[in-house]
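Q: Predict the bound structure with iron/sulfur cluster.
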Amino acid sequence: MIILSPPTPPAAAQQPVAVVKLPRRAATDTLPVMEHFYTLQGEGFHQGKAAYFIRLGGCDVGCVWCDVKASWNAADHPRLSVEDVVAAAAQQPARIAVVTGGEPLMYDLAPLTTALRQAGFKTHLETSAAYPVSGTWDWICVSPKKFKAPLLEVLALAQELKVVVYHESDWKWAQSFVPALNTSTALLLQPEWSRRERITPFLVDLVKQHPQWRISLQTHKYLDIP
Ligand code: SF4
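A: Predicted complex:
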């Protein structure tokens, strides 16, 4: 469990791992939401689990191979109230909420995670770690990008490191993050989708030689689900 302020909850209730103060971002009860929908988590450590996805608009990381470029401009997406989004999520039976983007940490996510947790959700974050963490998280997946370096303070909070591999040389780059992680952080390598036929066999051999890593496949794309 990772608790980040504001506000800081009682330690005994939440067993916080870390607290990060974020005075520069005002709390907001509305967020630019590109889409929110119920599906299965397609990739990463929790692949295959039913989850409610909340994809926020806005990202300035600029990955050339980004598969959600429509998310980049926050102004293209309506500002929805946290209350309405959480109410929609609560109509589904699963109690995992995945907050993704875009780059969700461009916003103060404390109001959203507070509302999700009050509705009984486990809160999962997908981030490039380009911005400090806000909100209260049960799971933080950091997927670092070369186009904007991840913050060490966010890497230190990650339960999951998921590195998208576009070129074989990305393996050394992936390894460079390990010293900043906890020893318990799950290490995943994911072939970039457009390069999967070339990269996947490379990753298979790599994981056989370095079994502390594992492969993450984008199963939602194979299953043709959102
Ligand atoms: Fe796209 Fe994510 Fe990179 Fe932003 S961080 S450009 S949303 S892949």
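A: Confidence is low (pLDDT under 50) at residues 5-24.
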